[in-house]
Amino acid sequence: MNTIETAKLEEHMEGQTNDASNGYSRPTLSVSEENKNGTSKPKGLSNGLRKTAKKYPDYIQIAMPAESRNKFPLEWWKTGIAFVYALFNLILTTVIITVVHERVPPKELSPPLPDKFFDYIDRVKWAFSVSEINGMILLGLWTIQWLFLRYKSIVGRRFFFIIGTLYLYRCITMYVTTLPVPGMHFQCAPKLNGDSQAKVQRILRLISGGGLSITGSHILCGDFLFSGHTVVLTLVYLFIKEYSPRHFWWYHLICWLMSAAGIICILVAHEHYTVDVIIAYYITTRLFWWYHSMANEKTLKVSSQTNFLSRAWWYPIFYFFEKNVQGSVPCSFSWPISWPPSCFKSSCKKYSRVQKTGEDNEKST
């Protein structure tokens, strides 16, 4: 019996193949006829599933939600907001430094506070220039690395938010507590008292020179607690290491040595108290680690009674920036500028297809 049924099945399949090869097609019913005859097929199902649906009338088709294609949306407009936030706090820092400078006591009346590091290490004049040069090199390396990142918009808004928040903290600590100069070598600019126009000029000079000694813009005193140079040296290294391949250990080592040497040179130059550097390192590393822990863990993004990290004052800003980012941002790179642009590529391809089709039609006629 099995042999007879198999032969009939093969004969039936050969008949269908011959009909198709001879140009015959099976008659199809319209939608109305199918509904009348009760032979309508469930749409969106394969033949096997249709047969199963007929055999089991209680079959239910469950629509699965489509998986989001873009897990890491660029959202450059959010990056722009983060940049404005960082720029505002950097400008605010220069304003606070100008205000605090007027309150710094003269070094003749208030000598430097005792510092254990200064007791054992004498001041080296050129050390602070080395610190600033190292910071500029690291910042340049990070800028180049950031330009080649595939998800540079997400990483950029994280960098701008963190550095903006750190400088906001710095504005608060500088304003509430004014420390005397760390050394007698400081040559502070004269106080202006109520000259508002001269203060604005000093603010513009600080902004144009980046607040660096090598540019001649670091002439004000009072910006000690905590160290802005340590913030930049530490934060830039953390971003370089986090968003570069793990097997680039030599690159990480070089950047770490430059960062560590720059921080040590700040102390060797006696430009900051040791506590300024320690607090700057602590706040920078903790804010970086907390932010990235919350960004990489889905459960930490949700505000709940057990998620104590969501009680930070900056959590709403963090959620606004990171709510659409799904998971850890992969360390992948791409060319910052594609050439030729994709718009020219697509238009040329479409034009070539149209031209080729027209030529084929002319040949056929």
UniProtKB/TrEMBL annotation:
Taxonomic superkingdom: Eukaryota
Family matches, as InterPro entries: Sphingomyelin_synth-like, Sphingomyelin_synth-like_dom
Keyword Endoplasmic reticulum belongs to the record: no
Catalytic activity of the protein: an N-acylsphing-4-enine + a 1,2-diacyl-sn-glycero-3-phosphoethanolamine = an N-acylsphing-4-enine 1-phosphoethanolamine + a 1,2-diacyl-sn-glycerol
Subcellular compartments: Membrane
GO BP term, example: ceramide biosynthetic process
Residues of the Sphingomyelin synthase-like domain: 221-293
Primary residence: membrane
Skewed-composition ranges (Polar residues): 15-40
Positions of transmembrane segments: 79-100, 126-147, 159-177, 217-240, 249-269, 275-291
Keywords of the record: Lipid metabolism, Membrane, Sphingolipid metabolism, Transferase, Transmembrane, Transmembrane helix
GO cellular component labels: endoplasmic reticulum membrane; Golgi membrane; plasma membrane
UniProt GO MF annotations: ceramide cholinephosphotransferase activity; sphingomyelin synthase activity
Membrane topology: Multi-pass membrane protein
One Pfam short name: PAP2_C
Keyword Lipid metabolism part of the UniProt annotation: yes
Residue numbers spanned by region Disordered: 1-50
Stated family: Belongs to the sphingomyelin synthase family.
Protein name per the record: SMS2 cholinephosphotransferase
Species annotation: Serilophus lunatus
